[in-house]
Amino acid sequence: MDRFDRIFDLHKLLSASRLPVPRQRIEQELECSRATAKRIIEAMRLYLNAPIKYDRQRNGYYYDPGEGEMFELPGVWFNASELFALLSVQQLLREVQPGLLERQLAPLKERIDQLLKAQHAGGDLDKRIRILRAASRPAGPAFQPIAGALAQGKRLVIDHYNRDRDGTIRREISPLRLVHYRDNWYLDAWCHLRNELRTFSLDAISSTKPTEKPTKNISDKALDDHFSSAYDIFSGSARKTAVLRFAPQRARWVAAEQWHPQQKSSWLEDDRYELSIPYSKTPELISDILKYGADVEVAAPPELRREVARQLQEALGKYK
């Protein structure tokens, strides 16, 4: 029985007992020594604010939360997503510069630290779990004015750097959604220059100018249909389906991955894994395909297969 099982069992024992529970019974129920039982009790008091009191006359422990109240354990038995969320928030709060929100954020920081300490006997759980962020690009000074315009429902004039064309274009946009994707910030917006929905990387926005014009109204459903139907952040509406076949040794890994909410998959007779993904644009999809090297084959459509083959041949040519 580990520490968290013992905390949970002690909580059930104290909650169900009308009279103080003797120490010997706690040791028996928790299958532990006297010293361990004391450590569990102290940990619950310190980290979980458990109102555990000791009755000397009856030689037992009991809950004393207050008249007419019941003590309940906070949600400290995290699953993977909950733990990731808490650690991520903790790291983000540590990166906030001292300033206007420092006093307001202090209680939140302290509460998260207490929850994380309760998950580990030695505390400092964040030092025992690493969250690695790869290839992230700072959002830069554009984040605050964009977030402000988004909240106020106002348009912006931005200078946006297009990396493909190596040039900067000034355009008027209606900010619609901020998106955090693969450790980078993006903005879904209506581009009034092109009269269509576009996604902009915040680090590529060099300047912003507020306007008093109201944001163009786009429904949530229309945004979801446009930005969520196809593969990658710059997707647009899905028009094609990529069929990928992974070699058996790689299939065991890919079968556990979710590339897209509408993906379809099946196992082939030769133990290969076939994955079908809706897509619109190819740059990011091709990049993800190429990282699997010889362990993946593009079965369809023909134009995607040819483009992947061309890039593989071009890469090979650099090593001749």
TrEMBL record:
<dbReference type="Pfam" id="PF08279">
    <property type="entry name" value="HTH_11"/>
</dbReference>
<dbReference type="InterPro" id="IPR026881">
    <property type="entry name" value="WYL_dom"/>
</dbReference>
<dbReference type="Pfam" id="PF13280">
    <property type="entry name" value="WYL"/>
</dbReference>
<feature type="domain" description="WYL">
    <location>
        <begin position="142"/>
        <end position="209"/>
    </location>
</feature>
<feature type="domain" description="Helix-turn-helix type 11">
    <location>
        <begin position="6"/>
        <end position="61"/>
    </location>
</feature>
<dbReference type="InterPro" id="IPR057727">
    <property type="entry name" value="WCX_dom"/>
</dbReference>
<protein>
    <submittedName>
        <fullName>Transcriptional regulator</fullName>
    </submittedName>
</protein>
<dbReference type="Pfam" id="PF25583">
    <property type="entry name" value="WCX"/>
</dbReference>
<dbReference type="InterPro" id="IPR013196">
    <property type="entry name" value="HTH_11"/>
</dbReference>
<feature type="domain" description="WCX">
    <location>
        <begin position="241"/>
        <end position="316"/>
    </location>
</feature>
<dbReference type="InterPro" id="IPR051534">
    <property type="entry name" value="CBASS_pafABC_assoc_protein"/>
</dbReference>
